[in-house]
Structures are given as structure tokens and as C-alpha cells.
Amino acid sequence: MDATLLAELIAFCGIETEFNDAWGNPTTVSQQHQLALLQAQGFDTEDDETAALQLLQRQLDFWQQPLQAVSVQRQDEPVQLLLQVNLEQANSELALILTTEHGDEQHFKLIPVEGELVQVVVLDEVEYHQYQHRLPLTLTAGYHQLHIADTDIKQKLIITPGRCYQPDAFTQRKQWGIALQLYALRSERNWGIGDFTDLATTIKYLAGVGADFVGLNPIHALYPAMPESASPYSPSSRRWLNISYIDVSAMPGFAACARTQSLVNAPVFRTALQTQRSKDYVDYSGVMQLKLPVMKSLYQWFTEQDKTGNKAQLKAFKQFKADGGASLQQLALYDALHAYLYQQDSMHWGWPNWPEQYRQPQSAAVQQFAKQHKAELDFYCYLQFIAQQQLAQAQQVAKDAGMLLGLYRDLAVGVSEASTEIWANPDLYCRDASVGAPPDPLGPAGQNWGLPPMYPYQLYKQGYQPIIDLLRANMQAAGALRIDHVMALLRLWWVPKTAENAGGGAYVYYPIMDLLGILALESQRHQAVIIGEDLGTVPDGIRELLGEYGVYSYRVFFFETAADGGYISPAHYPQQAMATLTTHDLPTLIGFWHCDDLRLGKELGLYKDDAQLQNLYAQRHANKQRILDSLHGHAFKGQSILPPDYERSVDHLGMDSTLNYAMQRHLAATSSQLLCLQLEDALQMTQPVNIPGTSTEYPNWRRKLSQPIEQWSQNSDILQLFTDISARRNG
Where in the sequence is the signal peptide annotated (predicted)? Predict the structure, then answer.
């Protein structure tokens, strides 16, 4: 390909050809990988003339619009308007109407050429000018609209605050909480998977020992027809909830419905229920086989209430469906159609593999299915209604118990290719590439997450509405939101499907200032604290920018090392951060100390050779010694974290309760505003939640906690640990 044309294409698509890797080494993306990414974005890289024409069409699509589709501006700056016109239109007067989100209108007129000329381009022999005007307006933060009178040309004008929400209470003391995988909660009453009632019970206990929040894995909607597709980070829809978390016994009518009681009291059902409770790993298919028939029975009972009363709940459901709009109906339609097709043929794992007539939601076949299965669609809407109610109730329990934040939710970085999000909005996603990560300490071979990325330009053309909707949905019933892979606001590592491995990709840039502004606006409106998972390859200056916008950094103890290899004192962590010892992608404390993750990685073939593995073992040994040195070298209010006579060499030191809890107490003294510990470590568990870079090789997202809440909540050692943590956070 011609070098000039290639450079223009690369620049237009926002592809980064040079970057510093996770170890700080300069890296250049090969031309082969550059071309592969251009192909993934729809350019014909085999024919320069065709590629040039494709580029021209996309450029004209932008420049031939007098108003940009969306403009994001800060509330503390003058309102600016960019007008794009060809040379002949530069002196033509334009009448504009501003409509605020409250419906107020302001009218004004502008002549483009009277503004500041900021850019000139010539496309297809036509000269286009871009002029900037300062508007005589004062706007509150929110979503407004500009449009040119007597035309359908409109712009979404988003005015944003300069920072995300931070509670006033943050100035008075520091907070802490526990992260858990909701599915992993065991109890003597659940149906084989943790549910919203288990969550509420856990919240009550943790609030009682001084915790301020409970962090959840993503609870996004998955696939009821294929329960084993259980990764919370490969969802079907990030706007809706995973219905497997519903406590069926808390649904309306459970005790009153004779038909339901007959189902759940049948000996075969009770035996199956006990089997699911006793399993150490969640059997998603078995759980749904128990829950769905009972849910359908209770939905039928609910619909019968038209004749018997309960008008308040019926009215609330009707309002819920109205508020959910097309997105809710889309999810219900997908789930119903997926179940219908998957029962016929297990090859119909998702819409890309469905019969042709069902691959577009607007098709006649899909619409006919919707009409014929209206009640089933309504059933799936009802399950979302119940899930939202039960989640909100859990958050209310947290607030009533005195937690400052309550639920701390997690927003996944993308959706799977088979998702309802992509089925409903295929133009937004690049299905010829996947999101991932270049080689880094977490994934030495790089990572391919199998999640099609959004096209930045399509996201802009849609007025950023998909992002707005995601943020709004995930800030519901939450005091804080974790943005998984927050670097996605700036750039994502795209791996073309043609690449040999995850390293065969490049970074593609996104409009970070616009996205940060929207994040700040929604954060303030929902009063949700934002934590950005800023691990991996982070460009210079980005953490500082996120900090300016009030986004809390994510500091993992194992990664916070100094130049000499020692561990940074938690007292020196940044204040605007959440500190944590480990994460769902890392081994537990015991697993780390005993190198269980390295042994498991060898069994699963995650290392390129034995030399790499031996190097990791040597590094781990050195890290453990540094950790032990840190624990012996620090004290809290004059009291040593470890007993004075505790072993000082790791050569023959196994992890015990003393060391495990000492590490958690050590981090509790962090200067960071937020501290998040893993429930698995309090229970002294060994097996990890997830092993990055694996799918079927390890039972990711299935391992339950080792004890039910009825047992561990009575453990005096755990109570003492959490009491000590609270004392250190308040000290």
C-alpha cells in the first residue's frame, strides 16, 4: 500500500503504531498488523484506489454535516459551537435553536465566517471550513440539543461537571469493604448459587463490623438458554441483570401460589436442590433447571393478579417496561428466541449462528416470533423487574445498616459476539476484531478476550448514547462503580481475527475527554464514586488525567513495587485510590505464597518454556521475602504487624493464619481513601476465581466459597480481623 495513503488511513482510524509496553520498552506495530486492523475496520488494503475511495466517503460523512453529531463541553468553560460548511456556505446565515433538557428554548443566528477559522480541508475538490463560535449561553450540566431551524440537522450538546462524585464523608475518614463473587456465596437457603438475599445477609454482617461497601463481580445479563456461558466479563447485555441471581423464594406469590409450592415441595425437586447446595462449583445448568420452571409458575401467578388485586405491583411492572423501552424488549426477545432456537439445535449458540432470517431483530421472521411469543417475552421482562427490585432492596439494606457506599458494582469492558447488544446494534461493533491486551505481567503471551470492540466513530455518530445508557444502568442501586479496564476510555488493544496471537494487534484510540465528561456527569447525577481499573500498560499522563476528573485509581499491593524491588509502604499510596491485595484475576494470598498459580499455569500450558517458569519461581521467592521484610518493618500505632518472634526468612515458611491476616492488616493502614479486601482471603481459600488466558482449561467463574455464610459469619478470627481493619481505617 502507498505509504501516504497508509498513514492517512492509520490516522483516520486512530491506530497507534508505536507504544511503550508494560515494561516500558518502545514497541512498533508491524505494517502487517496495521493492515490487518484496517481490514478489520472495513478497508480494502489490497487495492489502493478502493481504499482511498472508502476513506473519502467516511471523511465526507463527517465534513458534510454542518453540526457535529455530539459535542461534550465542561460547565466551567464558555459554550462553543463548531460549524462545518463548504466555502460557498461560509457567508450564509444560520438560524439555530437550543433546547435544554428541561424543554426551554433559545433562538439565535450565526454566520459561519464570523467565527474563528480552526480547520480547512479539501475533499473531492470541495473546500470545507470549520469555524468556532462562542455562544452567548449559560447552561447547567446535562443533555441539551442544538438544531438548525427548518432542517433535521441536530447536535446533542452535553454539558458536564469537571469531576466525578466524591462524598463529603471522604474528608472525615477512610472507608473499606469486601469484594466478592455473588455466585460464589454459599448459604443453607440458596438454590446452588449466591443470590440477592445472600447478598443482603452478607451486607448486614459486614456493616456490623464497620465495612462501608460490598464489591460485586459484574452482574450483567448472561444467557438463560446457555447457562454454562458464565463469564461475567463476556455478557449478553451490560444494561440488564443476570436473572440467576434472583432469590426465587422471595418472588411475589412464592408462598401463596399452590402450583409453585407443589413444584418446590416435590421430593425430586428437594433432592436436586440439596445436591446443588452441596456442590463446590456452581452448576449453572442445574441451577437454571431448578429456577426457571418455578419462575415461570410465579410469573403466571403474577399475571393472574389482574383479577385478584396487587395493583401496586402490576402498575410498577408496567412502568418498569415503559422505562426499559426498546432495550428491555430487545433483551426479552433475544432470550426467548435464543431458548427457542437452542432447544432445536445446540449449534445455535448465538445470533451469528442462527438461521439467516433471525439474524436481524427487524426481520419479518423475528417480528413474527415476537408476536407469537408475547407472553414469553413478557416473562423475561418480569424477571428483569424482579432482579432490579431485589438488587435495589440489597442496596437499601446497606444504606439502612449505615454503609456509606453500599454496593460497589463492576462494569465489564465489553460484550461477547453472541450478545444481544451487538444483535441490536451491529453497526456499532467491529466483529472482525477482539478486545484484549498486549503482553504484560498478568498475561505474558498477551490476552484475547473475545469481545468485539466499538467503532469510535460509530459511537460518536450515535451521540455516545450507548455509553450513557451503560453508565446509567450500572450506577443504579450502587454507591460506587468500578470501570473494568478504564484505559478503554482512551484506547483499546484490538486483535484482528486474522492475527496469530493476542500480540498481533494494536491500540485504537477513543475520545477520552468526551467520555470522561459523560462519566463525570452520570457519576454526579447518581452520586456514584468511580474507580478506574488502571492496571496493565498505562500511558504517561493518563493516571493524572483520571485523577483530575475524580476517578479513583486501583492499586494492587503485589504491583506496587519500588525501583529496588521492594514493596511501597501502603502509607505512601495515593489518597485518591482504592487499595487491594489481590483481584479476581490473581491468586488468593495462600495461592500466591504457595505458588499454586504457577503450578497450575504449568499444567495448563500458559508458559512458553521451562525457563520462563523457573524465572517466575525465582521472582516469586524474592517477592515473598520482600513482603515478609515489609511486614516486619512496619507497625501500626507502635504495634508490630507480625509477632517479634515470627520467622524472618521465607525459605521454609508456609502461609498460615498469622501471615495471611497480617498482610490484610498491613494494607489496612494505607493512605488510600478506599480499601477493598477479598472474602476468599478472610476464609483462607487457595483456589483462584479465574485464570486469565484460559477458557475451558480451568473452571473459571464457578468456584464457590469454602463455607456458607451461616458458618463463616460466626468465626471469631474473621470477626477479629474485620474489627481490626475497621480500627485501622478509622485510626
Answer: none
CA–CA distance, 422 with 455 (Å, rounded to integer): 12
The helix (run of H) or strand (run of E) holding residue 466 is helix 465-474
CA separation for the pair 189, 249 (Å, rounded): 9
**Hey, where are the domains in the chain?**
65-160, 552-730
639: which 3 cell numbers? 504495634
- What are phi and psi for residue 154, nearest 5 degrees? -135, 160
Decide if 520 contacts 549 (C-beta within 8 A): yes
Q: Pairing state of beta strands 491-496 and 506-509?
A: antiparallel
Below-70 pLDDT ranges, the chain: 306-309, 441-442, 444
The pLDDT tens digits for 268-296 are: 999 999 999 999 999 999 999 999 999 99
Q: Rg for the chain (alpha carbons), in Å?
A: 27
How high is the pLDDT of residue 59?
Answer: 97
Instruction: Name the DSSP class of 81.
Output: E
Helix (H, G, I), strand (E, B) or coil at 153: coil
- CA angle centred on 390, ends 385 and 394, rounded to 5°: 150
Element of type H or E holding 12: helix 3-13
Q: How far is 530 from 464, CA to CA, in rounded Å? A: 19
Asked if residues 656 and 562 have their Cβ atoms less than 8 Å apart, the reply is no
What is the model's pTM?
0.96
Nearest CA among 507, 468, 510, 503 for reference residue 489: 510
CA distances from 533 to 92, 104, 232, 591 (A): 48, 39, 16, 22
The CATH H-level (homologous superfamily) assignment of domain 65-160 is Immunoglobulins (2.60.40.10)
